[in-house]
Amino acid sequence: MSSGTVGGGGGGAGSSSSAGGGPGGAGSSSGSSSSNSNTNNKKRLATLNGIPTSVDDKTNDFLCPICFDIINEAYITRCGHTFCHQCIARSIDVAKKCPKCNYPLASHEHIVPNFLLNELITKHRLKGGGGGGGGGLLHRHKSSQPGDNSPQFHTGGTCGGGDANAGGEGDTLKHFLATESKKLSLSDVNVMLEILTQRKTLLEAESCAAQNRLLHEFLKHLLKQKEQQQLQIANEIALIRSDLLDVEKVLKDVQSSCPTVAEVEQSVRDEKDEHVVAIKREIIQIIDTIDNITVPSNRSLVDDTCSNVTESYEGFNLHGARRGGHGGGGSISGGSLSSNPSSFLARKQRMYQHFDDFVQCYFAARSEDLYFGKDRSCSSDSLGVGERSTSSGASIGTGTGIGGGSFSSDRLMGGGVHPSAAAAAAPSNASSQSNLDTTRSSGRSSLDTFRESLIKFSKYSALRPLATLNYSNDSNYVSTIVSSIEFDKDSEYFAIAGVTKRIKIFDYYTAIRDAAVDINYPINEMTCNSKISCVIWNSYFKQVLASSDYEGIVTIWDVLTRTRTKTFEEHDKRCWCVDFNEVDTRLLASGSDDARVKLWSLNVDHSVATIEARANVCCVKFNPKSSCHLAFGTADHCVNYYDLRNLKQPLCLFKGHRKAVSYVKFLNTDEIVSASTDGQLKLWNINSPPFCLRSFTGHINEKNFAGLATNNDYLACGSEDNSLCVYYKGLSKQLFNLKFSSSSTSGSGGTGGSSAAGTGSSSGIGNSSSRTSGLQSTDMERSNSEGNEFVSAVCWRKQSNIIIAGNSEGVIKILEIVCGPVKAGQTRIFWELGKFPAVAVAGLGDASKWDELDEIDGAKENVRIAAAAGVRALSANKIAEIAVEDMEHPQQAAEGATLANYKFQAFKSKEKQTPLPAVSFAEDASGKADWDRGVIIAEAQNFARVLMETPANHMTPTIFADTVKHRLGAANVEVVVHDEAWAKEKKMGSFLSVTNGSNEPARFLELTYRGSQDEQCVALVGKGITFDSGGISLKPSANMDQMRADMGGAANVVSTILALAQLKAPVHVKGFVPLCENMPSGTATKPGDVVYAMNGKSICVDNTDAEGRLILADALCYASTFNPKFILDIATLTGAIKVALGDCVSGVFSSNNKLWETIHEAGSQTGDRVWRMPLFKHYSDQMCDHNGYDLNNLGKGKGGGSCTAAAFLREFVPKGTPWLHVDIAGVMGDCSDQSYTGSKGMSGRPMRTLVEFVTKAGSA
């Protein structure tokens, strides 16, 4: 038996012999066949803990003589030596000779590829001889076969380790058993079996442990992650519950402040007046609506959520009006839009469509409270988690309760901590309560911010095309890309420019009106020498426009004359953009491929400054509220923000885009939006650089300049799928998407389609030229290569919801963002409906008959407002003829339409006058007589507006009298004009004292309309100061020009009698109008002078600026001689009445309660309300001075100026004569409460109230 032992030599129990034949191994058995092996092939000893294969030989056949690694990309020299290409190339560059034989190698042309060797090396690597490009060890291994005594070559292993060499050892063992097993004794076999069994058990245990150890690590990490998520969700739920309770409290407060349905129903049963019953029925409907909105406290939040989701998708379909063309006429219809849940349902559906986006927006807005601000109901102890990490990696403690580790951060973004934020120490317990109050206040603020975003996002429902134009109607142009679209300062005209080298000017209103015409011609056109990249209008000089082109030239144009007024040619390369400063309107900037931003002035022939950028400048934009701040985007992916007072370095450098920045626009003074060819828009704040506030995605933009425009909170940009995308700044996803139709399928571009949130109507795709952008200057080329159509230019009409967009085929679309139901006083125009090319639908609002708080007939007033809004909307679109429906109140519809269709332009040249449309009553409507009555009254009020608006030198007392005589004489009103001699004869010293200082002679009008046979007349007296300078007591110069309308009382009297005569009202009316000017001169009345009125009373003139009461005193005395039923005087008498009542109501002083009730009712019906003022004896006492004369013309007390003026006038009305005084200084002009008379200019109020009052009181 052999003397060798098995498993000896330090192999240890359970270890097998090394295949290399370690000491005591199988290979050491005496007399074995291995003793006959060649000594050169003897297996090397394994090194304890050594590096495997480190003692193996490397083959020298494929080694590079330079790097001593397997040759990679073999190249052979002229001298016949082979090296790696990289190695020999470097050697030639440095030494110019062969590294082995020093043979001269002057250049790379002296080496060629060694194809044969490359093939051999590839085959060698495929056999496993070498690793990837760096070479490796050559492994040799031959499978041992029974009876084969050949040695085994392999990478060495460790002694008894059970490693990767087990396969080789197993082969050796098999060989041993096949050749030597007969020599083993029973004890040897038992020892071997025991060792192998133990070895098997250990191997199985090791494998099982390795597998479960990995699973354990996975589960441990997963548990930690889910616990972190559980904590996050718990905190989010606590925040949501808190906010939900806050909102429910608001809704319950609203509900509790309203009467219950039962209370209103009980009052309905007790009420007999049918009008009041109708009002209360509507109140019940409103209460039901409020009750439906509020969430009962006993309902499950989960149930509420599920029901809301279900409701939002049931029975809802949003219809959009199709847009056709325009014509020459239009129609206005009204719709009563009372509390209707459809608007809320529409908004709710849009909210659910973007629910996930709103979730992100909500947590972004509430992140400060989520992580640092509010006490959470669950703690780290209950969850078993000590801390968690935000997305930015900052560790945040879970004890966010007060006194338990509250943290703060400079800025929170998207639900995580901003990279610049750092955790701060927890506040002390002493300051916990104040921090809690601050936190709650901050929470309400952030919740309000999110509420605002939710409302603004859901405000609009669709994009509606209004018109389609074409940049080039000439088919000879290969490319018709629209590069730029811009509105002028008044948004009347817009310019379109592009690669056809033409700038075309269109009239916006004409384009809308003529939308049905296939070809729309510009009103003006300029031609450039090169392709145009950008145009911009000056914000002050209406006719000035600037352009930049591909030759690097900036051109200033006079649009009216179509001429170049200035040319700047300092850019070395193509100029991409130009922009005017809106504050310093002579300053402009341009950016170019020469990596420069140049500043120009309209007063200088060369650039005034230059900013050196680090890359191509793609866009420039001035801050709209600053003269010295400028932003520009560059091809190095950055947005630069400069202060022009320091051009050495930018104030801010915004980084975050991955490709060139193609557009930069300002949302407001502090927020910038940038567009890039990385397919993103980014929102930045200049006060918190350099971090991006939000990224907007959803459009496609990889290589083209696709357009960008902003309008306060909304953004619009083009996309390379030939669509327009609209975003709201508070949400990253699209608000709307409208697809342009390909010209190959729809002629001039079609009308397109729109839908919410990125779902657009599909259309064909054709070919067009493209304007491309990239990182390098060659990529920046807006080339004319063939490609898919894309929207290339976008412009937002200022302060409106109108967008104009153009694409690479030259198709231009005028679009409107429309919202839900039309609100009261708002309009929406629909085109090509029935026989009308344009129909304006106006909201009528609440249909309540009476507004108790405002003391006005709400239904009638809403009709006036709606009719006025419709007329203005159609007139703005230059509709020439407008027909108005009755809207259930034809007279009020006529009043609103006629008063809105007014514009004072008597002193404009004919070519500059705005043509007004012809407004008529709809043919198929009922109530023509009421309509005609409304037109008569409104036209009479417009006559008063003209009298008041006309400049004083064109409306002297004489001209006023002649104008009235001509106009009222045609209406069968008797007009008598008295001169100063007549006034002296009547002893009107008070009246004549006012005209002493003027060269214009005074006049006194006596008007008579006899619509009934009554002997007693109604007397109307109107103050007629055609210009009031204040006399010797001179007024301040500010706003003195408005004193041309100080005869507003006279204008009201004249227009009232005109309307009564045209209406053939059954009343007998006389009007008395003293006319004069109040001017300073050597003959003017002086303060302290005493004059005598017609009734003999003496008056001390304390202030010559209180002249209106002086002329009214004599007029009242003269009117009293006719023994009238009552006297009403009206005057722009005191500024104090405007202080007391504002500009929405006239003040009335009356000695007769019945007359007051009648005029109050008349004001409520006509919308021109009046308010009763006190007329106490206390005010009369202030006007009397017993030191030698009867009256002062100025009160001696403090305040109450309008009351003392009325008390002065009462002294000239005989006792027992019913009398009213109406002070209209507050409503004279620039009134904000009536949209149909406009907020600017003279109003002619309250003439309609006088007509209603005289008709009722005079015929009683």
From TrEMBL:
Pfam family, one: Peptidase_M17
InterPro entries listed in its UniProt record: COP1, Leucine_aapep/pepB, Macro_dom-like, Peptidase_M17_C, Peptidase_M17_leu_NH2_pept, Peptidase_M17_N, WD40/YVTN_repeat-like_dom_sf, WD40_repeat_CS
Keyword field contains Metal-binding: yes
Keywords recorded for this protein, A-Z: Aminopeptidase, Hydrolase, Metal-binding, Protease, Repeat, WD repeat, Zinc, Zinc-finger
Keyword Cytoplasm: no
Compositional bias ranges of the Gly residues kind: 1-28
Biased composition (Polar residues): 144-153
GO biological process, one term: proteasome-mediated ubiquitin-dependent protein catabolic process
Matches recorded under SUPFAM superfamilies: Macro domain-like, RING/U-box, WD40 repeat-like, Zn-dependent exopeptidases
Cellular component aspect of the GO annotation: cytoplasm
Gene3D superfamilies tied to this protein: Leucine Aminopeptidase, subunit E, domain 1 (3.40.220.10), YVTN repeat-like/Quinoprotein amine dehydrogenase (2.130.10.10), Zinc/RING finger domain, C3HC4 (zinc finger) (3.30.40.10), Zn peptidases (3.40.630.10)
Listed Low complexity bias regions: 419-435, 756-774
Molecular function GO labels: manganese ion binding; metalloaminopeptidase activity; ubiquitin protein ligase activity; zinc ion binding
Enzyme Commission code(s) on record: 3.4.11.1, 3.4.11.5, 3.4.13.23
Catalytic activity of the protein: Release of N-terminal proline from a peptide; S-benzyl-L-cysteinylglycine + H2O = S-benzyl-L-cysteine + glycine; an S-substituted L-cysteinylglycine + H2O = an S-substituted L-cysteine + glycine; L-cysteinylglycine + H2O = L-cysteine + glycine
Stretches for region Disordered: 1-44, 131-161, 379-402, 418-444, 745-784
Function: Cytosolic metallopeptidase that catalyzes the removal of unsubstituted N-terminal hydrophobic amino acids from various peptides. The presence of Zn(2+) ions is essential for the peptidase activity, and the association with other cofactors can modulate the substrate spectificity of the enzyme. For instance, in the presence of Mn(2+), it displays a specific Cys-Gly hydrolyzing activity of Cys-Gly-S-conjugates. Involved in the metabolism of glutathione and in the degradation of glutathione S-conjugates, which may play a role in the control of the cell redox status.
Similarity section: Belongs to the peptidase M17 family.
PANTHER family named in the record: E3 UBIQUITIN-PROTEIN LIGASE COP1
Name of this protein: Cytosol aminopeptidase
Protein species of origin: Anopheles arabiensis
